[in-house]
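User: I'm putting together a teaching handout on how sequence relates to shape, and I'd like one worked example. Could you take L-threonylcarbamoyladenylate synthase from Parafrankia soli, show the sequence you're using, and then write out its predicted structure as tokens right after it?

Assistant: Happy to. First the sequence, then the structure tokens directly below it.
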Amino acid sequence: MQVFDCSDEGQRKAGLDAATDAVGRGKLVVLPTDTLYGIGADAFNRDAVTALLAAKGRGRNMPVPVLVGSWRTLDGLAEQVTGHIRDLVRAFWPGGLTLVVNHAPSLRWDLGDARGTVAVRMPLHPVAIELLGRTGPMAVSSANISGRPPATSAIDAVAQLGGAAAVYLDGGTTPVGTASTIVDCTGPVPTVVREGAVDLAALRSVLPLVREPAAR
């Protein structure tokens, strides 16, 4: 296990090199995002994703989301990028909004029991963006044991995950400290699945027809 302080330019470069190498070898890495710290793996490496779920103590019934380093990447992952999706991406990416879309049938990955969908986000954090630019899409979940508080610092993540991750990129305390909002865009009307960093009012200022969670 290696921990790199990304506030130091030399350590940041060394850390990004080490994280890129680890992801390429099917290992797990912990990275900062704008919302929370995440534990990530190559999205197309089934064994690595399985190891990620095991590290968190999480079942396949809770599929792993995917982080991307560019909004253009969504075109290659989604079966169809609708006008509603593009409006939300333009307004809130990079940032705290995760979009659930039907994934392209040609993709060969296994993120859990996702039933043909994938949850995608572009984070607003320079370290995350640089790593994703090197690795391509990563399967990333919050860097904590399932059921325990999410990590808002690298120290929190190390305390929970320890040697499960090969590399920890310490980017300081996460600026938002709240999980992303999730919007399901697989149907004709986008629907909020989880309220988080982006509130319903902000979503509706861009797309008035967004539905709030059914349980409300």
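A couple of points you could highlight for students: The chain has one domain: 2-206. The helical segments are 9-24, 46-56, 73-77, 83-92, 126-135, 154-161, 200-206.
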